[in-house]
Specification:
Oligomer: single chain
Number of strands: 4
Order of helices and strands: EHEHHHEE
Shape: elongated
Strand order of the largest sheet: 1-2-3-4
Number of domains: 1
CATH class: Alpha Beta
């Protein structure tokens, strides 16, 4: 299967287990690997033959504006469901990196979901 990769999309999100942690936005990096057939896009060189990366990025940003999660696991799952429900991919891998843990560069989760 072909892949569209959006690597380390930087976003701000109100996320965390405690209310205090969710009070201020935190920097997250989100990587998404969308699996789908890109043959028509490669053959026709037409933007309409593929999913615009900006569509996916805007969907994720809108999700973050309207939804506060406690866990990065839940956020990764919601992103995957959003993309799959809109049929923008037949499978997706989502990685979310969070930078708030002391003595670590970051913590991350990675999930893979399919239609």
């Amino acid at each position: 299967m072909d892949k569209i990769i959006i690597q380390d999309l930087e976003v701000q999100a109100h996320i965390g287990v405690t209310a205090g942690e969710r009070e201020h936005s935190q920097r997250l990096l989100i990587t998404m690997v969308l699996e789908r057939d890109l043959a028509e896009a490669g053959r026709t060189d037409m933007e309409s033959a593929t999913t615009g990366y900006d569509v996916v990025i805007n969907l994720v940003k809108q999700l973050l504006l309207h939804r506060q999660c406690k866990l990065i696991e839940a956020l990764a799952n919601e992103i995957a469901e959003l993309i799959l429900n809109r049929r923008l991919a037949v499978a997706i891998t989502v990685e979310v990196k969070k930078f708030s843990m002391p003595n670590t560069e970051y913590v991350a989760v990675e999930i893979r979901r399919t239609q």
